[in-house]
């Protein structure tokens, strides 16, 4: 630290160091948040490198290893047992994280992109378009998002791409509302008038003043929505309207195991547990972020 | 003491205009939803192709398109659809060969019954838990209640349903896993939905109570020498309910979604199960009618929530 303070060149490094220390301090004072963050990091690593971490091939069918109980050793089957086709459940859960997290992340990104853009358009504009966007948001509030998703998948057909599109269409509204509110608040501030007075363009204002203010709230919504997206995706796949049959996906695995509940409870129980733990961790972090930054958002 | 609602109705002359304004807004929303449903189901594909088997000839496709009126100009199709929709006619179910709207409405009482059981279970579990957590805030009781509701909120309804079947039907053999031949078959689906509602309700109610307990009127009530009971029910609870019903209105959509999944798993003959079956059978008239009916339920309940504010919070009446 002392060396860093002496030379201006390393100011950036010094700041990064203190910021890192601040993050550590926060995590140490919130062990549960730290635990959830660590768990999510592990899930993300599983989603990115399933091949390195999974003990077996998730799709290898081994009929002689059907319904191996959890914690019973058998060649080709790890601790969580095997399903009706003899596939290794732990490996399927690890590969399934890629599908579940991937779809939810893509849907959240798309929903956030659509929502933030429409929020800007609606906040900056005055005319019919602006009003129409917010009325559309009101309308969507009266259609349950799972019902909208079911109806749209019924028309478009199942599949990974359609599920992402359907989830995004169902999820853009909170981002649009928040962005619009942020735009309306910032628009009235004096510094914006001053900036306009010296010839600032709208694009510059958005980039320089509005986006940085909105981004924190958008991130909190994204964290909280991510969990709901995972649950909706799993629900669609469970109903056979999501990912193609046979995919290692948490929702689809629960559905596959459902027929053998009496003989092999673990085939449905463990993938569900994976969803619960991941979504709970996301909710803890989302709640913690929103409590820290914005009391208004607490009731989300 | 006259009932708060009657006082409100008589005292507040702007209530009528408020309610009628909200009603008009609700009707506009329902019209909008009807239009969205048309766009969704009529513009996104060729319904004739969906109805026919893959090997249908072009002539057969053209015939079906003509029979369904799909070869007419779009605006005529739209006008016809809206005209029928305004009369409550969303077409005929291709599977049941009955009016789609009457089918949806005929299944509605079952779902309402299920929702009632779920609500009862949620109230029995969540209200005492929230009161204990708020009274003993920061203690181990509070932490356990909060942790349970936080984890509970992350449980997908369909998985919860399966685990409940695993425990109560498969392992213990207490209740059948599906169907609706007797009233006791309301218990398991009711428990599934009820537990989902419990997680939401206990969390919200605890927060409302914690907030209320910190206010001056509670200190005044205690200073007057009222019993804890008299402090809790008329003072703290009434104020804690305001945020609860607000968020309840906002969460109604996800509760309806939960009911769809729960009914499907338990093969419970409510509207939700009807919807999922209709989707499998590509019976779009039912899907249309269902979306409009569920929107109507959400609009009406939120209107009631709005009215309830006035009962719970006198300030709203005079605003």
How would you concisely characterize the structure shown here?
The complex is a heterodimer of chains A (300) and B (319). With 300 residues, chain A is mainly alpha-helical.
Q: Tags for this entry?
A:
heterodimer; A: 300 residues; mainly alpha; 72% helix; disordered C terminus; B: 319 residues
SSE diagram, text form:
The complex is a heterodimer of chains A (300) and B (319).
Chain A: H1 2-6, H2 11-29, H3 31-48, H4 50-53, H5 89-124, H6 128-141, H7 145-156, H8 160-171, H9 173-187, H10 190-197, H11 202-238, H12 250-258, H13 266-293
Helix pairs in contact in A: 3-5, 3-13, 5-6, 5-8, 5-9, 5-11, 7-8, 8-11, 9-11, 11-12, 11-13, 12-13
Chain B: H1 4-11, H2 15-42, H3 47-51, H4 58-67, H5 74-86, H6 100-135, H7 140-153, H8 157-171, H9 187-213, H10 216-223, H11 228-265, H12 271-280, H13 284-312, H14 314-318
Helix pairs in contact in B: 2-13, 6-7, 6-9, 6-13, 7-9, 8-9, 8-11, 9-11, 10-11, 11-12, 11-13, 12-13
Polypeptide structure, described:
The complex is a heterodimer of chains A (300) and B (319). Chain A is mainly alpha-helical and 300 residues long. Chain A is built from 13 helices and no strands. In chain A, helix 5 runs antiparallel to helix 11 and helix 11 packs antiparallel against helix 13. The longest helix of chain A has 37 residues. Chain B is an all-alpha fold and 319 residues long. Helix content of chain B is 77%, strand content 0%. In chain B, helix 6 runs antiparallel to helix 7 and helix 8 crosses helix 9. Chain B is flat, with a radius of gyration of 24 Å. Chains A and B meet through helix 6, helix 7, helix 11, helix 12 and helix 13 of A and helix 2, helix 7, helix 8, helix 11 and helix 12 of B.
């Amino acid at each position: 630290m002392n060396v860093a303070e002496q030379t201006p060149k390393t100011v950036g490094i010094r700041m990064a160091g203190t910021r890192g220390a601040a993050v550590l301090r926060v995590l140490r004072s919130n062990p549960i948040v730290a635990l959830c963050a660590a768990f999510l990091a592990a899930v993300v690593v599983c989603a990115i490198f399933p091949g390195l971490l999974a003990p077996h091939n998730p799709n290898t069918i081994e009929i002689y290893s059907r319904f191996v109980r959890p914690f019973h050793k058998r060649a080709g089957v790890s601790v969580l047992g095997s399903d009706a086709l003899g596939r290794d459940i732990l490996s399927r859960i690890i590969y399934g994280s890629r599908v579940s997290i991937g779809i939810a992340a893509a849907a959240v990104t798309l929903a956030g992109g659509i929502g933030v853009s429409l929020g800007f358009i609606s906040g900056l504009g005055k005319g019919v378009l602006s009003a129409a966007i917010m009325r559309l948001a009101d309308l969507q509030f009266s259609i349950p998002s799972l019902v909208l998703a079911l109806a749209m998948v019924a028309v478009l057909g199942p599949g990974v791409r359609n599920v992402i599109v359907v989830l995004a269409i169902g999820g853009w509204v909170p981002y649009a509302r928040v962005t619009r509110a942020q735009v309306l608040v910032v628009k009235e501030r004096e510094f914006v008038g001053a900036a306009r007075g010296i010839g600032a363009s709208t694009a510059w204002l958005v980039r320089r003043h509005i986006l940085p203010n909105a981004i924190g709230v958008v991130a909190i919504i994204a964290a909280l929505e991510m969990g709901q997206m995972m649950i909706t995706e799993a629900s669609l796949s469970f109903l056979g309207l999501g990912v193609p049959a046979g995919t290692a996906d948490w929702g689809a695995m629960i559905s596959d195991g459902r027929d053998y509940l009496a003989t092999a409870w673990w085939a449905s129980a463990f993938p569900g547990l994976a969803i619960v733990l991941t979504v709970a961790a996301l909710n803890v972090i989302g709640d913690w972020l929103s409590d820290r930054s914005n009391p208004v958002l607490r009731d989300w | 003491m006259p009932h708060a609602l009657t006082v409100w109705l008589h005292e507040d002359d702007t209530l009528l205009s408020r309610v009628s304004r909200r009603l008009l807004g609700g009707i506009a929303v329902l019209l909008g939803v009807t239009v969205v449903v048309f766009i969704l189901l009529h513009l996104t594909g060729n319904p004739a192709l969906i109805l026919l088997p893959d090997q249908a000839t072009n002539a057969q496709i053209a015939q079906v398109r003509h029979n369904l009126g799909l070869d007419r100009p779009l605006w005529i199709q739209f006008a016809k659809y809206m005209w029928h929709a305004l009369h409550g006619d969303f077409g005929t179910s291709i599977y049941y060969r009955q009016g789609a709207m009457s089918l949806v409405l005929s299944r509605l009482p079952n779902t309402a019954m299920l929702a009632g059981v779920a609500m009862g279970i949620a109230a029995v579990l969540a209200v005492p838990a929230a009161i204990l957590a708020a009274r003993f805030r920061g203690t181990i009781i509070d932490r356990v209640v909060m942790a349970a509701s936080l984890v509970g909120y992350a449980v997908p309804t369909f998985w919860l349903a399966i685990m409940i079947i695993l425990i109560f039907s498969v392992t213990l053999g207490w209740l059948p896993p599906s169907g609706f031949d007797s009233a006791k078959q309301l218990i398991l689906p009711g428990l599934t939905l009820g537990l989902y509602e419990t997680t939401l309700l206990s969390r919200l109610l605890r927060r409302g109570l914690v907030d209320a307990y910190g206010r001056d009127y509670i200190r005044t009530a205690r200073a007057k020498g009222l019993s804890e009971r008299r402090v809790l029910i008329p003072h703290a609870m009434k104020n804690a309910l305001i945020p609860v019903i607000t968020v309840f209105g906002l969460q109604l959509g996800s509760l309806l979604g939960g009911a769809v999944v729960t009914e499907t798993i338990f093969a419970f003959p409510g509207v939700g199960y009807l919807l999922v079956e209709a989707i499998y059978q590509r019976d779009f008239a039912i899907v249309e009618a269902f979306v409009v009916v569920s929107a109507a339920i959400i609009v009406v309940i939120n209107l009631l929530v709005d009215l309830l504010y006035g009962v719970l919070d006198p300030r709203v009446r005079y605003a």
